[in-house]
Amino acid sequence: MALLPNIERRSFLKVAGLGGAAALAGCTEDSANAASTTAAQTSDESGAASVDVDRVAADPTDVPDPVDWNQPRTHDITMETKEVTAEIEPGVTFDYMTFDGRVPGPMVRVRRGDTVNLTLRNPEGSDMPHNIDFHAVYGPGGGANATTIAPGEEATIEFKATYPGSHIYHCAVPNMDQHISAGMFGAILVEPKDGLPEVDKELYFGQHELYTDKETGEEGHHKWSVEAAKSEDPTYMAFNGEAYAFTEDGYGRVPIEQGETVRVFLSNGGPNLSSSWHAIGNVWDRLYRDGDLVSDPARFVETTPVEPGTVTAAEIETPVPGPIKIVDHSLTRVARKGLLGVLDVQGEQNPEIYDPDPDGDSGGE
Ligand SMILES: [Cu+2]
Does the keyword Hydrolase apply (predicted)? Predict the structure, then answer.
């Protein structure tokens, strides 16, 4: 069935009650199994699983501070693989796999020439082996070969960040498509020795596809589907693991003050689909194409490909108030599969740049 915007879903569930929810989902099989399923946050009749965490979507403003040192350093970093059940959208649960319990995993930020001493831990109680492949690493598997660990194990690697750029990291076990689809990807930002231009705000999103055994919007517990993955036919596509997370129907729009210069990082975990990355009502004023932070940035690019396995960075200016919708311009993914994040530029109308009501008869926007 078609995905309903969350606001409609929530209103509908409130009005219609659980029977309505089951009918909405159209999932009689799951409804029949509901009695043996632990109550989920929403409708247990839908077959949704109980959640381990209320939220898996990383806060896009959670970006490490810029590099402010000018000599090589060593960074001791520990990451833990966490397998958690959470909601893709209300009433729809999924078994995520993550670095540190969030999608995307935390951004690692270093300076070119720095050394990273990284410990990866896979806690007791995990179901799967995991590892980590950094695209900022010279070495077998980008570190994956030496960090493949079973539940209860840990491994440490040390590497020098010899080349700059914004790069992805991801789990790279044999079923890597499943692990990445389930959330195991992030970004390592290796700043050039002279750093990056100062901006007012930085945001960090991760795009990926969720391949499940149910229809988009169908209530209940969605399991990974290798068939959907082989067809490259995702059930959901999301920023940070949850459908429409950064909209008024999710955790809210991301607030921006008018006039701020905002640098946005997009880590495309994939595992399969390129993003046609676009900011509706704006332009990538300076685009660090493919995460190349050394060449001069491209200017005033409307839409740019961000391939799976890439972290691209771009800067926007915000001269007028109102929403800026961050999308993949393959727009069915936006309208029907969950891939939308909204920045909310707060400020005064700036009619010299944009006047939504030049006749002045509607009171403006
Ligand atoms: Cu993994």
Answer: no
Span 209-218, pLDDT tens digits: 999 999 999 9
130-166 confidence digits (pLDDT tens): 999 999 999 999 999 999 999 999 999 999 999 999 9
In a domain, 176, yes or no: no
What's the 99 CA to ligand 1 centre distance in angstroms?
9
What's the 130 CA to ligand 1 centre distance in angstroms? 4
C-beta separation of 117 from 74 below 8 A: yes
Residues 6+ apart with CB under 8 A from 234: 181, 209, 210, 211, 228, 273, 337
d(CA 73, ligand 1 centre) in Å: 29
Number of domains in the chain: 2
CA triplet 209, 214, 216: central angle to 5 degrees? 60
In sequence order, what are the residues at sequence separation of 6 or more whose Cβ sits closer than 8 angstroms to the Cβ of residue 252? Answer: 246
User: Is 103 within a domain?
Assistant: no
User: Following DSSP, what letter does each residue of 75-87 receive, concatenated?
Assistant: EEEEEEEEEEEEE
- Alpha helices by DSSP H, 160-230: 176-181, 226-230
